[in-house]
Fold these 4 entries.
Entry 1:
Amino acid sequence: MTLESFVSVSNNSDFPIQNIPFGIFSTSDKSTPRVGTAIGDKAVDLSEVAKAGLLDGVQGLNDPVKIFSESSLNTFMSLGRPVWRATRLAIQDILSKDNAKLRDNSELLQKVLVPLTEVKMHLPARIGDYTDFYCSREHATNVGIMFRGKDNALQPNWLHIPVGYHGRASSVVVSGTDIRRPAGQKLPAKDAKAPVFGPSGRLDIELEVGWFVGKGNNLGEKIDINDAQDHLFGLVLVNDWSARDIQAWEYVPLGPFLGKSFGTSISPWIVTMDALEPFLVSGPVQASPEPLPYLQENKPSAYDINLEVQIKPAESSKFETVTVSNLKHMYWSVTQQLAHHTVNGCNMRSGDMGATGTISGPEKGSYGSLLEITWSGRDKIAFENGVERTFLQDGDEVKITGRAGKDSSLGYNIGFGECSGKILPCLYQ
Amino acid sequence: MTLESFVSVSNNSDFPIQNIPFGIFSTSDKSTPRVGTAIGDKAVDLSEVAKAGLLDGVQGLNDPVKIFSESSLNTFMSLGRPVWRATRLAIQDILSKDNAKLRDNSELLQKVLVPLTEVKMHLPARIGDYTDFYCSREHATNVGIMFRGKDNALQPNWLHIPVGYHGRASSVVVSGTDIRRPAGQKLPAKDAKAPVFGPSGRLDIELEVGWFVGKGNNLGEKIDINDAQDHLFGLVLVNDWSARDIQAWEYVPLGPFLGKSFGTSISPWIVTMDALEPFLVSGPVQASPEPLPYLQENKPSAYDINLEVQIKPAESSKFETVTVSNLKHMYWSVTQQLAHHTVNGCNMRSGDMGATGTISGPEKGSYGSLLEITWSGRDKIAFENGVERTFLQDGDEVKITGRAGKDSSLGYNIGFGECSGKILPCLYQ
Ligand SMILES: [Ca+2]
Ligand SMILES: [Ca+2]
Ligand SMILES: [Mg+2]
Ligand SMILES: [Mg+2]
Ligand code: NI
C-alpha cells in the first residue's frame, strides 16, 4: 500500500507524507511561534491539529495542545522515540487521503494548512550545547595535506576518535538569516610575526549535517552505541560558516573559536530518524584500525543523503552548483559521534545539537568547503558571465539542499528544504 | 560612615554587607529554587523581601516579586548594571542596622533569614554558553615547557590573543556536586601508537575564576572594551576538572573536548563587579607586544583576589592547602576576554559564562593545576601522615576559596564562599 495524502505533493517535493519533519513557524496573522510539519508546499499547524482533538490518544503524547503550542521542540523531543514515532504515524494518518477527519473539514483545513511561502521559520529548538565534529576522512585529509603535507595529513588520533570540539550555541541561526562578515585578528602574510585586525578575507562555508538530541542522558553516564540512534530526534542541514584567516591564527593549541562563532546556519525542518531509516547504508569500512569496542556498531549506520551547495555571487542573478556530496561518505557515523561524546559521562539535553563536520567526497566536485575546492585559494571557481570566486564576497548567497533517495525506487524523496544565508559587509575595520 | 548590618557578621566572613552576592537557593520546607543573597552566615530570601514590598521603587526593577521568585538569575541579569547597582544598594539599605523595616519585623525576619547551613544552593543561572580561556602567562608557559620545551613555551599567538575555546555548558555544576571520574581513550605509554579505553588516570583540577554576562549583545555586533565591565554581572570560583590523559590524546587539532566536558564546578554566589571595584588593580604590563587597539584598556582591569586550593585525600580527614594564587596574576583581564570574544560579532546572552583559564602565579606554591604542581606527575605532593598524590584519587575532595582584600585596610573581606567537589569512581572500564 502506498501512503498518499489528500494534500497535493509534487513528484519532486522534499516533503511527501513519508517525511513529516518537525519545525517551529509563525505566520503574519499569528506571530506566536508554534510547532508544525510540512507536506508538499504546505506547513501544517500542529497546534491547531491538536486543538481539534485529532492527536488525542497518541500513546505517551500527553497534552498535545500544550506541547505543540510551544515555541521550541524541546519538550516534544524529551518524550523519546516511541512517542515521536507514534505521533508521526498519527500525523500521517490524519493527512492520508483515506482519512476524512481533516480532509473534509474545510474550516479546520483553513486554520491548519499554510503555504510554506507564507510562513516564517524559527530555530526548531533551544540548543543547549552545539558540538562540531570533524568526521569526513576526505575533508580531514585535504585539510591535512594543505597544512602539513601528504605524509602527515591525518593526525595520529583521527582514525581512532570521532574528533570534535565544542561549538557556540548562541550564534546558531535558522536558514535565511543574514551572516555578518566577522572582523578579527589575522596574519597579514603567511610568515608574518604579528597579526593585524580587520574583516576576514577568507570567509568560507562548511557543508555539514546536524543531529538533534531527543532524549538525553544523565551527567556521569554514557549513551551506549547500540542505543544511540534512539536518542537522536533527527537531522538538519548545516552551514558552519568559517573565517579561515581568523581560524588559522587563533586555533593553536585550543581549537577554532572566533573563526566559527559568528554564525552557524541550519535548515528549519528536522527530518526524523524514522523517516530516514529506509536510507541507511553501510559506511566506509573501519578495519585498519578497528574502532575501540565502545564505537563498534553491529548494523548499518550511514545515511545515503545527497547534499548540494549552490552559490549566487553578489553580481549574479542565479544560483550555481559548486559541490555535490553525500552524507554516506562520512567515516564516523552520527551514532558513533553521539556514543563518543557521552563516553566520558558528558550529559546531553533534549535540543542539543551536533554537526558532522565538513562532508567532502572523494573528488574535487564533492568537496564541502571553498578551502578545499579552491585548494586554499589557489584555484578560482568560475561562475557564469566571467564571475570568479575563491572565498565569499559581501552579498554572496549560499544555499545547501539535501535529499535522501534521489535515485531510489521508493517512489518518493525525503528532503530537507534548504539552508541558506547571505553575507553582509563587516561592521568593523 | 561604615556600612553595618543588624545581622551579625564575623570579622572573617566572606559575606559582609559590602558584598551582597546573588545566588539561587532552596530550603527543606520550600523546595522551589529562588533568588537570594548572603550576609554573615545567613541566606536572605529576596523573594520574601520583595513580597514584603521592601524592594518597591528600585529604579528599573519592575516586578521584583516575579524576578526574585525565578529559579535562575537570568532575568535579573538582563536588566543591566544600573539596575543591579540600585538593587544592591537597596538591599544594603534594608539590611543596615539603621533601618528598622526588616530589623524590627520579627515575623518577616523569620521568613527572610535562613542559616546558610540549611540552604541548598543551585546553579545561579541557566548558562547558555560557557567559554574557557587560557589567560595566565605562567600557566601557559608551564604547560608549554612541559609539552614543547623552554624555547617554544608560548605559542606565537599567545601574547596577541586572549586564547579561548568553547566549553560544555550542560556539565557545569554547582559546588558540592560529586564528580564522576571519566573514562575515555588514552595512550597506554607516551610513544604508543594506538589508544586504549579506560578510566582517566590523570584526573586534575584547574583553579579558575568565572565571569557571568549580565547584559548581552546582538549577533554581528561587538562589545567595546571600554564598555565590557558594564556587561559583566559578576564573578565566581571555577574548578575546571580536567582528565589530562584523555585531553592529551584528543586535543590535536581541534582542542580539548572529553577531557573537560565531564564536569565543571562553580561556587554558587555570584559576587558583583560593584562589590569588587575596590579591589581593581593594574594587571601585568602589556608592552611587548602591545595589544591591538580593540584590546587596549585605559584603566585598571585586574582584580586582587586571593585564591586557595585545598585537597582532602580520601584516606585523610582534613583539607590541606596545595596552592595559593591570585587573580591579579592573569595576563589578559576578564574585560579583554569579553571584548575579544565578541569582536567577531559573536552574541552573548544573559547568563553566559566565561572562565579565565588556570590561574598560576610565578612560584610553584601558586600553580593552579596538579599538572604544574607535580610537573606532569614527576613530583609527588606530600600530605600529612605520609599521604601522597600526583593526580586525584577516588574519594578525594577539592575545595577552592577566594577572597578579595585579605590584607586590605578596608576593614572587611569580599569572599566567594567555596567551590568544592568529590571524586566518585569511574563507571566504565
Ligand atoms: Ca565545522
Ligand atoms: Ca580550563
Ligand atoms: Mg559555526
Ligand atoms: Mg570543565
Ligand atoms: Ni554595550
Entry 2:
Amino acid sequence: MIGGDAAGMSAASQARRLKGPDELEIVAFERGHFTSYSACGIPYWVGGEVSERDELIARTPEEHRSRGIDLRLRTEVVEIDVDGARVRARDVDSGAESWTSYDKLVIATGARPIRPDMPGVDAPGVHGVQTLDDGQELLDTLTRARGRRAVVVGAGYIGVEMAEALINRGYEVTVVNRGAEPMSTLDPDMGRLVHQAMEGMGITMVNDAEVTKILTGDDGQVRAVATDDAEYPADVVVLGIGVRPETTLAKAAGLPLGEYGGLLTDLAMRVRGHENIWAGGDCVEVLDLVAGRERHVALGTHANKHGQVIGTNAGGGYATFPGVVGTAVSKVCDLEIARTGLREKDARRAGLRFETVTIESTSRAGYYPGASPMTVKMLAERRTGRLLGVQIVGREGAGKRVDIAAVALTAGMTVEQMTALDLGYAPPFSPVWDPVLVAARKAAAAVRNKTP
Amino acid sequence: MIGGDAAGMSAASQARRLKGPDELEIVAFERGHFTSYSACGIPYWVGGEVSERDELIARTPEEHRSRGIDLRLRTEVVEIDVDGARVRARDVDSGAESWTSYDKLVIATGARPIRPDMPGVDAPGVHGVQTLDDGQELLDTLTRARGRRAVVVGAGYIGVEMAEALINRGYEVTVVNRGAEPMSTLDPDMGRLVHQAMEGMGITMVNDAEVTKILTGDDGQVRAVATDDAEYPADVVVLGIGVRPETTLAKAAGLPLGEYGGLLTDLAMRVRGHENIWAGGDCVEVLDLVAGRERHVALGTHANKHGQVIGTNAGGGYATFPGVVGTAVSKVCDLEIARTGLREKDARRAGLRFETVTIESTSRAGYYPGASPMTVKMLAERRTGRLLGVQIVGREGAGKRVDIAAVALTAGMTVEQMTALDLGYAPPFSPVWDPVLVAARKAAAAVRNKTP
C-alpha cells in the first residue's frame, strides 16, 4: 500500500479481514505521521467545533499494526518499478532507501492542493489545509496572529468551510474567488444564492478576482493578498483552491493517467492494463455515470469505498465501484449547499439537450416552526425526461435532500417518475410536496411542453 | 367532487388549471366548515407549536371559489346514484336535500377515526384528532381541564405525535397501547427503541394493554382509562387508534372496495369498472409496490398526489399514480422515526424469504458536534438481494434519511447496488459511510453468506 489514509488503510484492513497474516503480508508506506484521518474534518478542527486533532483519526498506527499490518510511517515511496514488481522507499528522517517487492500493489497517494506559483505563496501565515500537519500549522498561526483579518483564496467547498471556521474563530473574513460566483460546483445562478447568504453572515465575497501575489511585511509575515485591481489586508491567508491527483510516482512508472491527471482503473479498481496493481482514493479518476466520462472527485466517502473494493479484490474476493453521480454537500454557517449530477455546463459538454427549472419551497410544512426556505434547481434531458442533475441551497434539512436525487440518478429515473416518489412526509420533516417533488413536477411539465 | 380536503380540492384545482369554467363546471361538496387543510398538522396546533388554526389551511373556500369552483360547504352527499349519474346532497344545517347530476365524479371522502365501541367513549374530555373541529374541541378541553393528566390511547404515529403535543402543553402523559411496542408500523425490536426513548422523555408507556372502558366522574367528565388490569387516571383522553377509509357512500353505491374497506382504483385513479368516477386520498387503497398488493395508507402526501392525478385525467390530460412503497416519518419530541417498505411480518405475509440486519451509526461524523446515534434496520430478499424495507430510529437527521431507501425501493435496487450509492458526505451531514450505506453493506454480506 502506498499511502496510509482512507483508501490505502481501508484496503489494507479489508484485505486483512479476508486473509490472515499467514496468507497475506501487508506493508503500508505512509510519508506522514498519521493514518486513516478525516481530512474533511480539518475545517471543523480549525474552527474549534472539533476540539482535538486526534478526534479526526479514525484508526491509529498502533491499531493498524495490532491487526497485522506492517505500517511504515515517515517512509515515502519514491519509485515504482512495475517490471520488477517492487517499490523504492525512503525514510523521510534518515534519507535511507530500500527496495520492497510486491505481488500486489495498491496506489493510494491521494491528492495535493493546488498551490499557485506566485510571489509570497510560501510566506509565514499562508496555509493550505490538506493534511493534519497543515491544520496544526494554521492553528499555530491563528494563536500567534496579531490581527483578526483572514483572506481565503478560493470559494469551493474547502474555501467556504474555511470561511466558516475563521468566522467561528472571530476573524473578519474575505473570500477571494476567481469565478463569477462562489461554489463553482453549482451553476452561477445557484452560486449567487450562496454569495448572498455569505454576505449576510458578514463574509466579504470578492468574485471574478484572480490573486496575483501575496504581500509580506517587514517581518516577512503575510500582510495582504493582491489581485490586479486591489489589495486585501490579511493576518492569515488560507489557500482553498482545490486539489489535483498526486500521481507523480504513477506517471514516472508509466501507469495510465486521465485528462485530470488521475490514475485510470477498471471497475474493480485495478489500474488499467495491470492485473496486480490497484489504485483508489483521491489519486484516481472515477467514472461519472451521468456524463459518461471520467472525472476527478476528491472525497473521503469515495476513498473509503475504493479501499473497500480494493481490499476485497486484493484479498481474493470480488467487488466493484461502478462510479459516481457527483454528489457533494457542504455548509457555511447555517447555509447548506448540495449538488449531484450535471450542471448546465456539464450537460452541454456531454452533448445533452435539457430543460432546467428552479423552484422555491421550504424544509418543513410552511406552518411548522423552523421551516426555512430552500431553492432547488433541476435539470432533465429533453425528450427522455431523464434526471440529469439537482442543486439545492437552503438551511437545515436542505443538504441531505440531495440524496433523493443521487439515488434517482443512479437508477436512471425520469423526472416524471420522480413526481410519484413516496418520500417521507410529516409536517416537521417536509411540506406535503417535498421540495424535490415540486422541482420534479415542474421539470416534468417543462419536458412535456417541449415534446411535440 | 365529494369531499373538500386534500384529494378533492387538489383534483378540483388541477382540473380547473386544464379546463376553464366555460369548458368544465366543477361542484365540490364538503360537509365541514373548512377546505384543503392539513390534518397532519393538528398535533402541532394542539401542542402549541403552530399558534393559529388557520395556518393549517392551505387554501380557503373563498380562494377556491375565486378560481371558479362551486364549493358547497356544510353540504353532505348522502347518496351516489351511479346509474343515474347523480348525487344526492343534504344541507347539514337545514336538512334540505337535492340531486346534482354529473358527467364525472370524484370521490374523496377521506377516512374516519376508529372509535372503539366501549363505555364512556363519548364522554366529555375524550377526543379524536381527525378534523380541525376535533382539534378545536380538544384545545377547549385542555383550557378547561382541572388536572394535568392525559392518556393517549394508541401508539401509532397519531398517538406519539399527540403524546408530544400534550407533553408540550405540560401534561403528564400515559400512552396505552394494544401492541407489544409502540409504532406498530415498525418491527417490535425497533418499536422498543421508541418505547425506551419515550420513557426517557417522561412519557409513561403501557404496552400489551387493551382499553376496555373509559370511566367518568360524578360530573360526567372523563376521569380514567381502564384496561382489564389497571386504571389510568385522566383529565383528558386522546384517541389515536388509527383510521379506516370512509366509504359508506361508495359501498352503498356498489362501488368496488378492497380488503381494508377502501375504494379500488386503476393506475389513473379511476374507480375500477367505472370510466367516469375517480377516487383518491384516504378513502382509497393503494398498491404497495414492494408487497405487490393493496394497502390502506392515510397520508396527506398521497392524497395530494392522487388529487393531482385525478384532476389531470378529469381535465382531459393523462397521469398515473403507480403506488407506494410505504414510507412514513414521525417524531416524538426529538426522536425521529421512519420506515419504508416491508416489516418482517409484511415480508412473510408476502411470501418472501429475507435477511435482516440492524446497525448503529451516527447522524454526522462521530467527531462533529451534534452527532447523534441512529439505528437502521434493513431487510433484503434472499438470493436476489433486493431491498425490501428500512426502519430508522434516531434523533435529528434520522427521519428523512429514509428517502434514500424509498427511492432505492422504487427503483428495485439490490442492497449490493446500494453499497455504491453516491450519497452526500461532509462531516456536518454524515459519517464517511452514511448509516444507510453501513446497513446496506451488512445486508449485502448477509445475502452473500446465504447464497451458496
Entry 3:
Amino acid sequence: RRRPGARGVSPAAPIAARVGSGVHALVRGDDNARLFDYEQRVRSAFDAIVPALKRISALQHEEDFETRAQRVARERLGFELPGWILADAWVEQLDLRRLYAWCVFETYLRFSDDFFSADPLGSAEEAEFQAFLQDCGFHILDISPCADGRLAHVIRYVLRLPYRMVRRKSYAGALFDIEDSLAKWGETELLRFREGTPNTADAPTRYLKAVVYHYSSSAPDTEGCAAHGSDAVRAAEAGCERLLAFQQAVENSYCCGASIDLLLIGLDTDTDAIRLHLPDGAGGIEPGTWVDAAQLYDETRGLPAVEAAERIDARLREAAPEAPAGMLRLLARLLENNLSQIEYVQRHHGGRYPDIGHAERFIGAGKGFEEVQLRNLTYFAYLDTVEEAAPDLDVGVKIFSRLNVGHGLPIPVVVRFDYHGQVPGARERAVAHCRRVAGALAARYPELAGRGLLHSLQLVRDIDAGGVGGRVEVLDCSVREPAQEAH
Amino acid sequence: RRRPGARGVSPAAPIAARVGSGVHALVRGDDNARLFDYEQRVRSAFDAIVPALKRISALQHEEDFETRAQRVARERLGFELPGWILADAWVEQLDLRRLYAWCVFETYLRFSDDFFSADPLGSAEEAEFQAFLQDCGFHILDISPCADGRLAHVIRYVLRLPYRMVRRKSYAGALFDIEDSLAKWGETELLRFREGTPNTADAPTRYLKAVVYHYSSSAPDTEGCAAHGSDAVRAAEAGCERLLAFQQAVENSYCCGASIDLLLIGLDTDTDAIRLHLPDGAGGIEPGTWVDAAQLYDETRGLPAVEAAERIDARLREAAPEAPAGMLRLLARLLENNLSQIEYVQRHHGGRYPDIGHAERFIGAGKGFEEVQLRNLTYFAYLDTVEEAAPDLDVGVKIFSRLNVGHGLPIPVVVRFDYHGQVPGARERAVAHCRRVAGALAARYPELAGRGLLHSLQLVRDIDAGGVGGRVEVLDCSVREPAQEAH
Ligand SMILES: [Zn+2]
Ligand SMILES: [Zn+2]
Ligand SMILES: [Zn+2]
Ligand SMILES: [Zn+2]
C-alpha cells in the first residue's frame, strides 16, 4: 500500500490549487475519491462477515466442511478461520456466535494494522495546517465530538482536517470532562514554555476548544443525540454551557489573563453538513444562530472557486461582524472543507446516508482508537473504569442489543488502553488496566457474557512508537481455544 | 480555640532559638507538649465511644432511658445522640451498631471541623521552611508514605514539617502512581513559568520526590508493611525502584534536561524513628545504607545543641561524601526534627507505642483528608473508583473485620471527595463521584452492608475555600432516620 502525500502543497498555495474536479468549484474531487475508496474498503471488509458466515453455516454438515469453509473465508474475507472452532462443528452445531466475534475482531485488527503501518488517511497538509492555525491565532485545536459512532469521522472526513494535528476526545453528548481539558490546557502551556512547541509561550495565540453536537434533519425527533433526548436546541445549549464552563475554569484556575477561545459546531448526521455557531465580540457563543454549510453549498454552487470563497467570507463577516479576523479565516476554511464532504455524501451516499441511525460494528472501550476515523464503525466508550462509565456502556449495550443480540449475534467489545512507552512501567500498567476493565465488563453484563453474547478483545498500544511499531498489541480475547486438558 | 503562630521565628533564627526544654538539647519540648495535647484530645474523643455506649446499653430498659442516655452522651462524648435511634429501643433492642457508626462519624466531623476552623496543627514555620527548602535547592517536597494508618502522622509529627508546605499523597506500600506524579511535576513547572510560584522557572532548584516505607523493630515479621510481606528490605527496594522509575519518566517525557531529586525514608512505626537513605553522587539512592535517627539520638544525647547539630552534619557528610551540600542540609533538618518525635514517643508512649499494630478508627476512601495528621486514626484508601482500588479496600476491610466486625461493630467508612470550588461544576461532579463510590462500596461488600456492618458517611470539601468555609460538607450517611411514611 502506497503512502499518500506525494502532492506537495505549500502553505501559500492559492485556493485554486487545492480544489477542483467536484461539482462545486471548491470541492476536492481527488480527496473525495481517495476517502471513499478507503471507507468502501474498510466497510466492505466488515460487511462481508455475515454473508460469508451464512454460506459457511450452510456447509457445516458437508463431509469436507473444514476445507470448504476455509476456502469461503479466504475468498470472501481474505483470512482463514480458527481451525479449532470449525473442527468441533461435526459434534455439535458450528458455534457461529463465537465465529462472528472472532471475524469482527480479526477484521478490526487488520484494519488497525493497516492504519498504523500504511497511513491511509495521512494528509499532506499537516505542516501547512499547523502554520495556518497559528496564523489564525490558535496554537491548538481541541475538539470534543459526541461519542456517537455517526461522528467518528468528523475530523478527517466532515472537517477534512489532518487528524494528527487536532486533538479529538469524544464524550457522550459531547459533554467533555472539564478537569481533563484543564489538564490538557496546562500541558500545552508547559510545552510552549519549555520547548517552544508548537510555538513559544509569548506568541499571542490561544487554545481553541471546540464541541461538535449533532442532529438528524430527516428524523429530528428520533435520530438526534440520545444524550440530549434527540433535541438539537438542547444539544447546542449544553455544548455552549460546557464550553463557557471550561473557559471560566481556565480563567479561575490560572491567573495572568489565562483564557481560551470557543467554537460550537453542529453536525447533521444524515448529510454531514455542519453549522458553525458564531462567536460574539465578548468571546462568548450564540447557541441560537449559525452559518449553515448546506445552504452555502447551494448558494455558491456554480460560482468560480474564488468567488465562492469570497461569498463564504462575506456571509461569515455579516453573521459575526465583531469576531476576530483570524477566527473568521478558520471558520471559512472549515466551511470550505465541509463542502467537499457534502458533495461526498451526495455522490457516494445519495445525499443522505442510508444508515441514518446506529449501525456500529463494535464497541470501543478504553483509551485510544486514533485509527477509527470512519462513520458508524465504532460506538465509543472512552473510559478509565466501568464503574464511572456505566451509563455510557449501558447505552452502547442497548444499541447493540438491537443491532446484534436481537439477531442472535454477540456484542464485540474492543477494550484498549494506549500508553507512553517511554515512561517506565507504563505498558505493565496499561496491561493491568485492560484486564481489569475486561473483567469489570463481564461482571456488569453477566447474562450476556454467560450466553456468549458479549465478547471482548484486549489490546494495548505504545503511542510513543511510530509506524509498524505503533500497531496494537493483542493481550487476550474471550474467543480462544479451550486449554488442552492433561490426560 | 486560639490560633497558634504567635511566636515569630525568622528564617535566620539560630538552632538554639528553635529548640530546648527536652531531654535532648535539640528537642523542642514546647512542640511536643502541644502536639501531645492535640493527639490526646482527638484520641480520647474516639476512645470514649465504646465505654459510653456500653453504659447506655446497660440503661436501655430503664423507664427514663432516653433522658439518661442523652445525659451520658453529653457528659462522656460531648454531644447528644440521635433521638430516633434511642426512641425505638423500647420496642426492639437498642441498635448499637448503628449508634456506634453514628458516634464515630459525629466524632470525626467534630475533629475535622475543628481542624479547618481552628488550625490546631498550624505551624509558624511555613514561610521559613519554604525559603529553607529553596535554599537547599528544591522548590517542592512531594512525599508519598505508605497508606497504612501508622504513617498518617508522618508529615506533622514524625518529620515535624508544616503540612501545608509539603505535598502528601499516600499509597499502599508507598508505591505511588507515576502518571499522577508526572502530572504534578508538570503543574509545578507551569506555575513556576507562569506565576513564579514558589520561584521562577529559571531558578536552579529541583522537584524533590520522597517515599516513606516502614517496618516494625519489635515485630519485624508481622507488623511491617503488609504490601511488602512485612519485609523491610523489599519495602526499601520497591520504594527505591519506584523513585528511579519516576525520575526516568520525567527525563523521558520532557526534554531540556528535566529531572528530579529523590529521597528514600524508612520509618520504624514502633518508635517513629526514621532512617534516611543517602543519595549517591549520580542522583541515585542506595537502598542498603542509611543514617539512623534513633542511633544519632543516643549518640548526641547530653551534648549541647550546637555540638549535637555539628555531630549530625558530620555523620551525614561521612555517609554521603558526594551528596550536594543542599541535600545534606535538608537531611540534617529532617533528622534533627525527628529527634523531637523520638523523645515524644519516649515520654508519652513509653518509647514504643502500645498499639504497634493496626488500630485505625475508620476507613477514609476517596480524595482529601488533609486533616488526618494523626497516627492510627484512619486507614487510607485514596481512590477514584472502587473498581481500581478494590485490592486496597479489601485489605482495609480485612483489617476492620478483625478490629470491629469480630466484636460485632460495623466498619465506618468516610467517603470523601475534595474539589476546587473555583472550577464551575466541580462541586456537582464531586457530589456525583461521592455517591457513585458509596454505591460501589456497598455493592462490593453486600453481606457486610446488608447486616449493618458497613456504614458510610459521604462528604465533599471545597479546597479553594479557606477557614470555616473550607469545612467538609455532609451529603449523606447510611445511618439515617427512616423516612416517615404517609398514612
Ligand atoms: Zn450524541
Ligand atoms: Zn499571575
Ligand atoms: Zn505499608
Ligand atoms: Zn528541549
Entry 4:
Amino acid sequence: MEYALAQASAAAERGEVPVGAVVVDSAGSLVAASGNRVEELNDPTAHAEMLAIRKAAGMSGSLRLVGYSLYVTLEPCAMCAQAISLARIKRVYFGASDEKSGAVENGVRLYNDPSCHHIPEVYGGINAAKAKVLLRDFFRVRR
Amino acid sequence: MEYALAQASAAAERGEVPVGAVVVDSAGSLVAASGNRVEELNDPTAHAEMLAIRKAAGMSGSLRLVGYSLYVTLEPCAMCAQAISLARIKRVYFGASDEKSGAVENGVRLYNDPSCHHIPEVYGGINAAKAKVLLRDFFRVRR
C-alpha cells in the first residue's frame, strides 16, 4: 500500500486526483502500478486501478489474474470494481472509503450482488488516513 | 445500431464475444466505433463500449462527451455502465438485454442508484433480435 500511496502522491503532482494502485502476483511480486491519469490521457476511464489491471494483464499474458492482489488507495468505483471482478483478482486492499462514488462498501456494493460472478476478498481501511490526507490536500487547493 | 451490429459481427469473426459499440456526437456524426477486443488485446477491460468511449474522448479532446450518444448491441455491464456515466454520455441505446451480466436493467441497475452522479437516458431493446442471434450463434459453436 505504501507504493500505491506513492503512485497517488505522484498523481497529485501531475494535477490528477490522487489515487494510486498496485497489482502483485500470487508470490507477492509487483506486476504493475499506476496513478490516476484521467487528465494526462484525456480518458475518463483512466483510473489507477484500470491502468494497473491492463498493465498486469499485459505483463502476465493472461486475461485472468488468478491469485493476484490489487492495492488501491481509494475504494473502487463501479467501473473499477467490475474490472477487478472481470480480471479474476483474488484480493482487493483499499485505503480510504469513498462515500460519494465507491461501489464496494458504498453505492451499489457490487460484490454483494448476485450478478457479480467473481467476488474478490476485500480488505478496506488499509492506510486510510494517508490516502485521505492526499485527497483532502488536493481538493483543498482546487475547490 | 446497424453499424454497432457490424462491429459485433466483425468481433465474432476475430473470435471475440460479438458485441459492438458506436459513439456519435450531438449532431449525430460518428465519432468512434469498436467491437469487443478482450482476446486480441489480452485486456479484460477491452469491452466494445470502453474502447469506443476512450476513442471518442481522444477524438473530441474532452473528458466529457456532453450531448453524445452511445449505441451498443448488448446491455452494458457495471464497468461499462459506470464508464458511460463518467464520460457524461447523454443517451444509451442498447440491443439485447443481458440477464447474466447487465447492470442497467439487470443486476445492480447502476443508473437507479443514488450514488450514480450522471444518469444517461436509456433506450433498450433496439435491434435486440439481431444482437441476440449473433451472440447465440457465437456461443453455439463454442460451447
